[in-house]
Amino acid sequence: MLTFITRRLLAGIATLFVAIFMMYLLVDLAIDPLADLQEYRGADKAAKIAAREDMLNLDTNVVVRFFQWLGHVFQGDFGVAWRSGQDVGTLVSHAIGSTLQLVTAATVLSLILGVSVGIVSALRQYATFDYLIIFLSFLLYSLPSFWVAVLLKQWGAIGFNDFLADPNLSIPVLIVVAALMGLLWVLAIGGSVTRRLQTFGLAFAATLGVMLYVQLTDWWADPQLGPVLIAITGVGFAFALTAVSAGLRNRRALYTALATVAIGVALYYPLQGFFDSVAPSHLMMFGLAIVAIGVGVLVGFLFRGPDWGVSARTGGITAFVIAAMIYIDRVMQVWPAYVNSNAIGGRPIATFGDRTPNLGGNYWVQVLDQYTHLLLPTLTLILVAFAGYTRYSRSSMLEVMSQDYIRTARAKGLSERTVIMRHGFRNSLIPLATIVPIDVITLIGGAVVTERIFNRPGMGALFLNSLQEAEIEPVMAYLLITAALAIIANIVADLIYAALDPRIRVNA
Amino acid sequence: MSTPLNPQNGEPDSVTIENAIELKDVEGLSQGQIVRSRFFRHKGAMVGLAVLIFVVLLAFTSVGFGPVPGWWPQGGGSGKVINPGGAPTMSLPTWLGGSGFAIGEHPFGQDENGHDMFYYVMKGTQTSLGVMFTIGGIACVLGVLIGSLSGFFRGRTDGMLMRFTDLVITVPTIVIGAVIGKMAGSLSAAIFGAALGLILWPSLARLVRGEFLSLREREFVDAARVAGASNTRIIFKHILPNAIGVIIVATTLLMSSAILLETALSYLGFGIQSPDISLGQLINQYQSSFATRPWLFWWPGLFIVVIALCINFIGDGLRDAFDPRQKRIPSQKKMDRAAAGSHETTIPMQAQGGHVGLGGGS
């Protein structure tokens, strides 16, 4: 294993070196730092050109310049973007921060959504739902992201802001939406006619109830979850999670999940006081999330039993979800103040940049502000990535479900849940595990198009702007980082594959 | 299966019937005929193919191509703005809520200087299609060449070629695209497409290499070698035809991502630039007028989506046609009919099942 990693790392470094060298030559060919001076009509044109050539060291051969640049990089100095005079290291660290915000949420959400929809679609192969999902994923896959982004910006933002100004839907619209949701659930779950009718009724009533609640409590103007809603959704989630991951007959897991929900709801009011009394930060929130997961695992452990690992897992996931709901609730509480503040002026969904300048406010307002800026770009990225993950997980699941060991599992009398979740689902994730790291890490290179359209100052925007400004240092810093990350991602993917699939041997 | 065939074979009836239907379908046909008939039966692919052919014909005949004149009366020059703001003169039939079906002089509308949008969109479609096919062709040839050499000769050749592939794969495509686009910005669409084709081949090369690695160990390759066939002959006559399915499918899907890449680069201003017209460049040019003249933005985007969607469907149909593992489930009617006629036909069909080894006991 160690030799394999060492060999791959050495090969990776060699590849990186050659790639960066080639990229340096290419970028040097592509940019022309003197372009604006060629247009210059003054008498001192020659002197200005000479001065700039001197400043950028353009007389030196490009190969020599490359090695000079590389030497500086080895000393941790990425150079200076000459037009603005900013330090490239600082520029890049700011850009990475903005990009990480964008891609984390988008990747996690599209992964969860895409994989679950793909799996359901595969289980319902050749049913109407399957055809619907195939068509949808094809359509999303064929959408140019820049087109979607501009549409979202022009329609999504303006339309949603208008809606928020007067958030009322008529009753027929609500009923139609609820009926559509009911139909979708029927198609996804299927079964006998009675089962379908039950599903439809339940989904219809639930959707209509939620929408009526939202409408009647004026939720859009003053959104909040509150302890009651958190308790109801938490219990629902606890049942759903246990049903999927452990089976409802595993009482210990179910009681763990429910106990975790109870603890979370009991802590709701104490936590509000806690949030008010301290100065919160992202680091603290991250720590609290870890603590929450720990509590959930502990509850599962305390229920003991021969398979306490399953209970602990269920408890941990439930605790995280409850904690996330309490966090979101706290962010929602500043919504009215945020929307009505002067900087926002009642139009909260932003299309420009990654924060509102001069907004002020406490931690929660800042977080909410970042969320409203993240909404549309994240949606753009999700729409495109969702299609890919759905297709991939669907075909992977189909492949797995036609294997002999699935037939064996069914033949020895395992429940359908165990067959699908333990024998099917887990194995279908193996090929997925090899593309996800590559996807995630290359995304850090920036969603170039999305960042450009929404004017987010991320990595992709840094690259594009520097390329247009003919500044080679930031461009090369960007390329160095993305290329190194791509190589690391490939190695990580290989390692994960080797760890997950015992048929793969890295030492051979 | 040396014993006399048992009609039951231990399989459920439905599976037996399914196999029988499938076997009857392919009886006495060559591989090419099977693939073709499967492809023609794929509804999505056929619709996609029809629409794509329509788009290609429309784009190339309407506004003319090179020296050949087209049948569309409007040119690229500015003219009188017909409707207020240059709104499209095309309207829907009355039963669809329009004011009676009409195409008018400027069906896709005009911009503020009276340029005909239909002309622009057709020209842009020509460019984008051209770039797409150039990318597909070049990437396909390069990928197949490098992948087959690498997979067939293995060893040092493989090592070197795969390191080279890693090198090209390392940097995100859009980045190289942007650099090339900036270098080739003033050049024609053909050169831009060729440059993109030169960097998009690695995924195909890896796929072809894997296919060659497994195919070269098969008996028919040994047989050919024993019979004295040269390496070239083995590659071209024996292995390549067996890998053609993978290659065609991968190339098709590559083309659908190629058109999205080209339009995205042109949108960013790194690809096709004015005065040349591409669909992405049109969107870039007119995105600021979205609020006032949305048709300038809608039509180029719509054509991109339609082309990419068609190609994706064609690729899907090709995959189903080439990959026998993705079996079509026969309709209930077919199953019933086969079950009803099973008294006379079951025995011979089962015999076939035994020969090709599809029976459960084999």
From TrEMBL, chain A:
InterPro entries: MetI-like, MetI-like_sf. It is a multi-pass membrane protein. Keywords: Cell membrane, Membrane, Transmembrane, Transmembrane helix, Transport. Gene3D superfamilies: MetI-like. It is found in: Cell membrane. Residues 96-497 form the ABC transmembrane type-1 domain. The keyword Transport applies. It comes from the Bacteria. It holds the Pfam family BPD_transp_1. The chain crosses the membrane at residues 9-27, 100-122, 129-149, 169-190, 197-216, 228-246, 253-271, 283-303, 310-328, 374-392, 429-449, 475-500. Belongs to the binding-protein-dependent transport system permease family. This is ABC transporter permease.
UniProtKB/TrEMBL annotation, chain B:
PANTHER family: D,D-DIPEPTIDE TRANSPORT SYSTEM PERMEASE PROTEIN DDPC-RELATED (PTHR43386:SF1), OLIGOPEPTIDE TRANSPORT SYSTEM PERMEASE PROTEIN APPC (PTHR43386). The keyword Transcription does not apply. The chain crosses the membrane at residues 45-65, 129-152, 164-181, 187-208, 239-261, 296-318. Residues 129-315 form the ABC transmembrane type-1 domain. Its main location: membrane. The lineage of its organism: Bacteria, Bacillati, Actinomycetota, Actinomycetes, Micrococcales. It is a multi-pass membrane protein. This is ABC transporter permease. InterPro entries: BP-dependent_transpt_permease (IPR050366), MetI-like (IPR000515), MetI-like_sf (IPR035906), OppC_N (IPR025966). Belongs to the binding-protein-dependent transport system permease family. Keywords: Cell membrane, Membrane, Transmembrane, Transmembrane helix, Transport. It is found in: Cell membrane. CDD domains: TM_PBP2. It holds the Pfam family BPD_transp_1.
